[in-house]
């Protein structure tokens, strides 16, 4: 089977930034065999190696609010600009956009790359996930399952 990955991004200890991991948790037991899942926190440089060889990748990440907290954007990682990342204080300047750009430069970017960016409102250390963001976790998981169902190698294997 072609390699399909679902990657949740963000720090679970920084409020809405942890939404990627929450969506991956919501997908547990619902994905067909062979679909890989992982959660990456902190520096995103490791994504370059994580998705090398994958045919399709779906990332779930928090974004700074540009409209309303909890608003979900589906972005083609090859054709569209990503939403601004939350302004988290960090010594790491390497984010998702940089990982995509580096993978392209190295010729290792997955051919299919979509990002579900969820606008957040609170990114403070120790903060809980906001109600607006928590309310869309199941919706995003359902949308990711629909994406997986459309992927040719897995369409027959989706579990209810």
From TrEMBL:
Name of the featured protein: Hydrogenase maturation protease
Species, as recorded: Devosia nanyangense
Top-level division of the source organism's lineage: Bacteria
TM region positions: none
Family per similarity comment: Belongs to the peptidase A31 family.
Keywords attached to this entry: Aspartyl protease, Hydrolase, Protease
GO biological process: protein processing
Pfam families linked to this entry: HycI
Entry-linked NCBIfam families: hydrog_prot
GO molecular function, one term: aspartic-type endopeptidase activity
Gene3D superfamilies found in the cross-reference section: HybD-like (3.40.50.1450)
Cited SUPFAM superfamilies: HybD-like
